[in-house]
Every structure is written in C-alpha cells, then in structure tokens.
Design brief:
Number of strands: 7
Largest sheet: 4 strands, mixed
Helix content: 40-55%
Distance between the termini: 35 Å
Oligomer: single chain
Shape: elongated
Strand content: 5-15%
Order of helices and strands: EHEEHHHHHEHHEHEEH
Length: 256
C-alpha cells in the first residue's frame, strides 16, 4: 500500500509552508492505495471534512506521524511480535538494553579481524591452508581489502556484514571455503531436489573440485551454511578481480 495526504502534499512540507495552510487543501485524512483502489483513512473522527489550518497544522503533523508509525503498521507489527515471541521469550529480551539487543541480533560494530577468521575457517573440496588459491585469497583479503570490502565479503558469505558478537570461533556453521570448478552446476540450473543434495554435499565436503584451474566462473556462496564456493583460479589477479566483482554485486547463492 501507498499513503499520501489528502491532496498528495506531505506533512513536512506543510510544517515549513509559510503561507496559509488552507491553501494546500489538506484535511485530517490519508489517502491509501490498496490493490489499485484509493481508500481514505480519517486521522480523527470527522477528519475528512476538517481542513488543516495554520492553527491546527502541528496537530495534523502529529496525527500523520501516529498513523505512519502505529496505525498503518499495527496488524503487521502485532503479527511479527506474536511470531517472534513464540520463539524468544519476553524475559530473555528484557535482560538486554536496546544497543545490546542490536549487537546480539546484528553482530558487533567492531572492525573485522580476518586474521581471526583465518584461524577458524574450514576448507572443503580439496582446499587446505597451504593451497595456492587459499594463500592468494588471504593475501588479498588481509593486505589489500578495505574495511568496506571486508564487510562486503562477510555479508556475501554469511548474509551479515558484521562479525559475530563472540568472535569467529563461535560462528555456527563455521566459515567454510570449498573448491569448485566450471563443470559444477549452480543451484539456479538445478531442480529443487538437486539443489538440496548439492547444498548438503557442499556442507559435508563430499564434492571435489577438479583442481585444473578456472578463469571464467565467479565465486558464489551458500549463506545458510556460511560457505564460500571459490573456483580454483589460475592466477592471483583473476582471483582478485572475480572476488571483488562478486562481493560488490549484491548477489550470493544465485550468482554464477
């Protein structure tokens, strides 16, 4: 749905308008588009016939704010809260302040320590800590990436741009890097059953990359498993270019 004032002029403009507010043709009502139809919602009893004037425009702004922040989203908010409370008890939430709860849900705001991540990463599909592609990967991400690029990498693989509150050692499933080759299908090319089997094989490390080297395929990820699927690139330059392109694309699971 979309909401506007009765004449399509927003409340902020009405607040700063220096002329006669009645010239704007506003009333204490909001026009809301629902499935192609315009439905008028009164901000107070008789609001549709109560004009906004210089003397009551502050009250109008307060009414619009209340409508936007409470009335309009009341049903959706109640449904969300009911679902959330069925999983997380109220008593647990009351233990935390708002900043603490934000950290718990979204991760820490501290800088991303990739050297710590490196200590806890898991390698699959033929990769290991001394593999040339892995050595290139850490050299690029540790020594060349900006903070913004580190954040983008973390979001690309885990769907969250912030590090875990308790550190990367606490990440579950652990951050993993798996070797893939050009012959391996992406989930977008599979049936749902094939995609599910591929995801579990990736998680368990049952599929192996060919190790022959690739230059065409982009890195991709399975964020539900914190898994980076990294092709066995033939050069460090190709790895750098493909990795930066992938993490800045805003895609993940479906990127191939």
């Amino acid at each position: 749905t979309q909401s506007t004032g009765s004449s399509g002029i927003n409340a902020e403009y009405g607040k700063t308008y220096e002329g006669d507010a009645q010239d704007l043709g506003l009333t204490f009502s909001m026009d809301e588009e629902e499935f192609g139809k315009i439905v008028s919602e009164e901000l107070m009893p008789g609001g549709s016939v109560t004009p906004v004037t210089n003397s009551n425009k502050i009250s109008y702004i307060h009414q619009v704010a209340h409508y936007k922040m409470y009335t309009q989203i009341k049903k959706q908010t109640r449904a969300f809260c009911a679902g959330f409370k069925s999983v997380v008890q109220d008593d647990w939430l009351r233990m935390f302040s708002l900043p603490e709860l934000q950290k718990l849900v979204s991760g820490d705001c501290a800088s991303i320590d990739l050297s710590e991540l490196r200590k806890h990463v898991r390698y699959l599909g033929g990769y290991h800590g001394s593999h040339r592609v892995i050595l290139w990967f850490w050299d690029i991400t540790l020594n060349e990436f900006t903070e913004e690029e580190k954040s983008a990498l973390l979001k690309f693989v885990t769907s969250c741009s912030r590090p875990p509150l308790m550190g990367f050692a606490s990440m579950s499933p652990p951050f993993s890097i798996r070797a893939v080759d050009d012959a391996e299908q992406e989930p977008s090319d599979m049936t749902p059953g094939e995609a599910l089997r591929s995801s579990f094989k990736s998680f368990l490390g049952l599929s192996q990359g060919s190790g022959e080297g690739s230059n065409s395929r982009l890195p991709s990820s399975s964020t539900c498993f914190n898994l980076l699927k990294l092709p066995v690139y033939r050069s460090k330059g190709v790895l750098r270019d493909k990795l930066k392109y992938a993490i800045k694309s805003g895609a993940g699971f479906e990127l191939s």
